[in-house]
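Inputs:
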Amino acid sequence: MSAPAVKSLKPEIALKRAWGPARLHPLPLRIMHWINAAAIVIMIGSGWRIYNDDVLFGWLQFPDVLVIGKWAQYGLQWHFFGMWIFVLNGIAYLGYGIATGRFRRKLFPIRLREIFATVGDALRFRLTHEDLAVYNAVQKILYLGVILVGILIVITGLCLWKPVQFSELASLFGGFQIIRLIHFLCMSAIVAFIVVHVTLALVVPQSFVAMITGGPNVNGGPALVAEPARVAAPTPVAEPTRPAAPTPDSSPSDSSQ
Amino acid sequence: MSIRPRTPPLLRPKKPVDQSVLKQNRKRIEAIDRRRVLRGTLSLGALALLTGCDVSEEPAVQSALRAVSAWNDGAQAALFRSTHLAPTFSPAQVVKPPRFNAYYDIQDVKPVDGAAWKLQLTGLIKDKRPWTLQQIYQLPEQELIIRHICVEGWDYIGQWSGPNLRAFLTHIGADLTAKYVYFVCNDNFTESIDMASALHPQSILATKYAGAPITDPFGFPLRLRTAVKLGYKNAKWIRTIEVTNTFRPTFWSKQGENWFAGI
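Outputs:
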């Protein structure tokens, strides 16, 4: 991950010919993202309907207007329909992330010191991106965390659906109500993630648009002509106040827009 | 062993990303203030309230959802392990009395007169003579201390005993290659299970709970108790057992509940 820009250009040109300009969010990823978004809405809305029939917490009942399915059996129908989309799409996403090396590149390594620094910034609403393509420690933890929670919610879901057929797996967690509780807590974590994720997407609408259009080009494209300033930086004409720093992207002072 | 640089994956971007978006949005990101975020979240919540209409009952949607549910029946049958036993528990964990479940309240239960009651047999069965309760009590009993899981989410551990269903079906000369075992109950409730589940070693026709005859609300004189189905599949107050190859919708599956309902 140290010097991605120094790689030879030939395969890249070939890639560009074959796939068109690579985007920040490649097409397969965008498709899977929106399929997942729909599946998650179905799973959470119908899950709340199922929950309401026998609540885990006396103080918590989801309002009828927020749940999917007027009656419990409709909630169950939606849940056991959505599960196939969520699981199959999730498997495709994990396969894609591993096969393309995207997870390794984007989510690792996670350094402890980095975490403390970014968590501090995040809590004060002072998160800044230094490089759009590189996640900060909080992003890494959130994305990795939500993937792991997504896996756990599927495993506990299987144990709730088939506590006898998968009794070996279910026995790892304990009683049926404990599995329900873990399943519920996973849902809560995903809802918390969605609140942050959607809020940030609405604050910066381009990030939302990028998940539809693909966002900025990664392999070439007009914007990249000025980019390889890492190697030689003879074009600071537009920003005369800035010295030719080795990492011009990271400079926070930019008022010329 | 030679060290060779790894070929980068085909789909991995070869150049860094165009960072101009950051510059364009830096002010916006810096201007995030908590109040506005909170206000925005509230409006989102309000928007969500507007979407509270349910399309599940639309005929097209409902038939699609039921088609998936029927497909899930097949998936569950494929997942079913005919010799895999459900976890069993100790008598100390048994909940007494059991928890009531039906499509009406416990005070509306109509008790069955055990002396007049007879179990009727129909369908693909060689010996269709009806059974009195005394005759059933004379059959060898099997005890199951198993978890009852309701589709609503609650569960409890119960102690049930009575003749093993497979042994009973064999005894009356039922066609064990038929597809379904169908139950008609005294409250006109109907339910059916697949033959594989009926033949599972932990499926019994229960007559007793915790060593004493089942009381009225829980299915006296005879009920199904199987470790491999959700609670609502366990027909109570059984009047007729039919062995058949014809699928007929049952009380709960007509309402849109999943028919297979295996656990």
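Remarks. The CA atoms of residues 138 and 171 of chain A lie 33 Å apart. Chain A has two domains: 25-220, 221-249.
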